[in-house]
Amino acid sequence: MTAKRGTRKSKRPGGRDARVATIARNTTETRIEIELAIEGKGQYTVSTGIRFFDHMLELFTRHGAFDLELKCDGDLDVDQHHTVEDVGIALGEAFNKALGEKRGILRAGYFVMPMDETLAVAAVDLSGRAAFAVDTKVRTRLVGDLQTELVTDFFEGFARGARANVHVMTMYGRSNHHKIEAIFKAFARALRVACSRDKQLGEMLPSTKGLL
């Protein structure tokens, strides 16, 4: 993968406890390659062909303190939908794979993110069950070059791929750019907490069901 403007290629952390994953997802509509490290430095190389979407994934990586290399070649001549949704699915699959059995993780996390005049909240539960709720409060068709209705499709795809509950919401705000950006930042920080190791539980599975 080729580094994009101002980014650095991720250095993968070593050690047997490093939680990393590689995903290749190829369909007739998209071809996606992902390398993910949960214990990262917020370094990224992202290319989807949708610049505003790239920006959201870049700040997601930085605020989550992950390392991410992601390349998607999609049928943008048809529509942006396949690219955005499939990236969400593949990224969710990468997190699910990197977390393995999910022993010793906090499992759930939430974050309230202010961004100037905007406030957004995100909550994540790595429950093994896919569910999502999204309310961006964005009423314009485009922000930058991104079709804004597809923000919901991204989070739905991530929830499916990660087998997680994902809830994101803009509480209030004026700038549509800020509304979407605040949601992605809140989501990154909520997911960062959910993926974190729980020192108190140790290697215990955070569920009474015996699996996640």
UniProtKB/TrEMBL annotation:
Gene3D superfamilies: Imidazole glycerol phosphate dehydratase, domain 1. One of its GO terms (molecular function) is imidazoleglycerol-phosphate dehydratase activity. InterPro entries: IGPD_sf, ImidazoleglycerolP_deHydtase, ImidazoleglycerP_deHydtase_CS, Ribosomal_Su5_D2-typ_SF. SUPFAM superfamilies: Ribosomal protein S5 domain 2-like. It is found in: Cytoplasm. It comes from the Bacteria. Its main location: cytoplasm. Pfam families: IGPD. Its EC number is 4.2.1.19. The keyword Flavoprotein does not apply. HAMAP family: HisB. Belongs to the imidazoleglycerol-phosphate dehydratase family. This is Imidazoleglycerol-phosphate dehydratase. It comes from Candidatus Sulfuritelmatomonas gaucii. The gene is hisB.
